[in-house]
Amino acid sequence: VESAGLRSFFSFGCFADRCENREDVFQRAVEEVQRRLRLEATVCFIGDTPSDIRAARHAGARVIAVATGIHKREDLLSHEPDFCVKSCAELVQIIAK
């Protein structure tokens, strides 16, 4: 997030790369958003794996897939993210809208 120049778009972040059950982590992140903002907010996760997409959906959130990891764009698209980008530069364009 920092190296891609995206930090200013987020007040906090939750990262699931060191957890076995991403669904639980993503659900806790949604709860944390609601606690911090004290309202129903639109939550959008950014991930680079099919597991990230599934976990975001399980938590009732939107998801942007970023094909910068080991998974190809076509593979990520088959899991039906809301958006799928090829680079962090494209991600910045979507978030800035």
What's this entry about, in short?
With 97 residues, this protein is of the alpha/beta class. The protein is built from four helices and three strands. β2, α3 and β3 form a beta-alpha-beta unit.
Describe this structure in words.
This protein has 97 residues and is α/β, with parallel strands linked by helices. It has one domain (7-96): HAD superfamily/HAD-like (Rossmann fold, 3-Layer(aba) Sandwich), CATH 3.40.50. It is 40% helix and 12% strand. Strand 2, helix 3 and strand 3 form a beta-alpha-beta unit. The longest helix is centred in the first third of the chain and has 16 residues, at 22-37. It is globular. The mean pLDDT is 83.
Relevant terms:
three-stranded parallel beta sheet; 97 residues; Rossmann fold; 4 helices
Structural class by helix and strand composition: alpha/beta
Rounded radius of gyration (Å): 13 Å
Q: How many H/I helical runs?
A: 4
Helix content: 40-55%
Q: Using DSSP, what is the number of strands? A: 3
Instruction: Please identify the top-level CATH class.
Output: Alpha Beta
**Spatial order of the strands forming the largest sheet:** 1-2-3
Q: Strand share of the residues?
A: 5-15%
